[in-house]
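Weekly puzzle thread! Below is a chain. First person to post its structure in token form gets bragging rights.
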Amino acid sequence: MARSTVRLLVLIAATLLTSVATAAQKSYDRQLAAPAGGHLRFHTQVGSVTVVGHSARDVTIHADLQGPRSFLDRLHISARQSASGVRISAHLAHGSWFHWFDFGLHHRVRFTVEVPRDYPVELRTSGGSLEVQDLNAPVRAWTSGGRVRMQDITGRVKAHTSGGNVEANQLNGPIQLSSSGGSIHITNSTGTLELHTAGGNIRIRNVDGRIHAVTSGGDISAALRSNHGISLRSGGGDITLLLPLSTHASLDAKTGGGSVSSEFPFSTTQIVSGSHLQGTIGGGGAPISLYSGGGDIRIRPEN
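Winning reply:
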């Protein structure tokens, strides 16, 4: 039994050393026409993806690939055009059970795709980061663990990562961003905003629109241009809300373990205590609902 185990370990080590010795690099390039009215759909099992809008009516695909030769030989990339647009896929063909050791070695897969600015985009990767910028079209993006970054997009955005952080800047349209554990940071954006993270912090800066943000345990910090309806909820972190001094609102702020404080003058108050504050600001307006399971809540005028 022991001798068989030793043989197996030697075989595994030899396989790993062979993979390292045969590490390689290669690239993939393709260009497809993209008439108006189409969309991009890109699904990959590996690698990070960056999509950039441009003025040309084509989709240009470039990939930088690096890793053991056995890994690169099994990675198949396809791109095709249809009446609905362009579809790109990248998947790993099944091999012997030794191919699983490829993932213990260094490999890198990076896709860069240029699309017409009016092309809706759908992206999915099983582990790498996702980045989209310079589009006037809807975006849907999912990754099983990498970072998500959205920049300069006009149109509906829905993005999710199972573990990384989410960053967004200069979005205009309904926005849904979520992470199973990372932080979310959004700035300089307009439109209805829905943010969800299972544990990270949420930071919102210079945003104008109805806001709903939830974290299971992190802090929430929001500096907003106006009040169109605000709901901020944390399972245990602190909540800080900054608004213009001219804000009109109906406020309900409550914490299960910390304290609630406000620097705004109240028109009327219904409940005033160390952990619960309810009343109207500026004669009343859109509702502001703030709740923390245990952190402090602070409401202040924006400087």
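Puzzle host: Confirmed. Bonus trivia for everyone else. Confidence is low (pLDDT under 50) at residues 96-105.
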